[in-house]
Design brief:
With 255 residues, the protein is α+β, with helices and mostly antiparallel strands. The protein has one domain: Jelly Rolls (Sandwich), CATH 2.60.120.620. Helices cover 23% and strands 23% of the residues. The strands form 2 sheets. Strands 1, 2, 3, 4, 5, 7, 10, 12 and 13 form a 9-stranded antiparallel beta sheet that branches. The structure holds 2-oxoglutaric acid.
Length: 255
């Protein structure tokens, strides 16, 4: 169980890191499957060239054009991901962070992927809140980012701005794609508070869907792999007709 201080830190800062959280056998299974699916280009894959974030190849035909950014639909790829998502400790800890007695559900529509950051041709992700393209009754979801290997500044780890999930930011401070504009004094002041989230294999980051985060490119020699899933309570439903409702959510924990 999480301690009171861990729960209050999550509420205050919008994130929580738990070290060595996942069983070695489950980690190795996921790592094996992710590596195999990446090497064999098993679809569905989102490519760097599709996303066009800073640093990505210009087109699928450019050098590195077949560099994966995400192995999508991780939950249905293999039982090892289902085992991770349904593990009772994760369910209990999410229940504590949501402070709820409702059922807990996995969204199949958001994240639900293995983030792959390749040694060459990877892109950076600018400052954003995940909620920007999500449509739920409440902006209150929690994502769980699991490191399958080391994540550090050199290989493009996440950066977060503690407490930023509670901020109301004026729409003018965002660009068209809803990233924070980089030529804005208030944004610069906010970003000065950023912290790097350095993780090791088996460490987990819980983060609120309104928390501002960003990440750099991978300048190390190995591909970085992270499993990312997003959860919500049964009382907080995706809005009908939106991208968030395209696939049904999966029950992962019940009281
Ligand atoms: O690893 C990265 O570049 C960050 C990805 C990210 O923040 C996201 O998909 O929301």
């Amino acid at each position: 169980m999480l301690t009171h201080s861990e729960i209050s830190n999550f509420n205050k800062h919008g994130f929580l890191i738990k070290r060595m959280y996942v069983a070695e056998s489950n980690l190795d299974e996921m790592l094996y499957v992710a590596t195999n699916h990446l090497e064999n280009h098993i679809n569905p894959i989102e490519y760097e060239a599709d996303l066009k974030y800073p640093g990505a190849p210009d087109s699928p035909d450019a050098p590195g054009g077949k560099t994966s950014r995400r192995l999508l639909q991780a939950y249905s790829r293999d039982h090892s991901f289902q085992r991770w998502v349904k593990n009772p400790t994760l369910g209990e800890n999410l229940r504590q962070l949501f402070a709820t007695k409702n059922d807990l559900l996995l969204s199949q529509c958001h994240h639900n992927c293995v983030m792959t950051k390749a040694k060459n041709y990877s892109s950076a992700t600018l400052w954003h809140q995940d909620n920007r393209y999500w449509s739920f009754e409440e902006e209150n979801l929690i994502s769980v980012w699991l490191a399958l290997g080391d994540e550090n500044k050199k290989n493009g780890c996440l950066y977060v701005i503690p407490g930023s999930h509670r901020l109301e930011i004026h729409p003018e401070r965002f660009n068209k794609a809803l990233f924070l504009k980089d030529n804005d004094m208030q944004n610069e002041l906010l970003i000065n508070n950023a912290e790097a989230v350095e993780l090791q294999k088996g460490d987990v980051l819980f983060f609120h869907s309104k928390l501002f985060h960003a990440a750099g490119r991978n300048n190390a020699s190995r591909t970085k792999l992270s499993v990312v899933f997003t959860f919500h309570e049964s009382g907080n439903n995706p809005i009908k007709g939106t991208r968030s409702a395209r696939q049904s959510s999966i029950l992962i924990n019940k009281l």
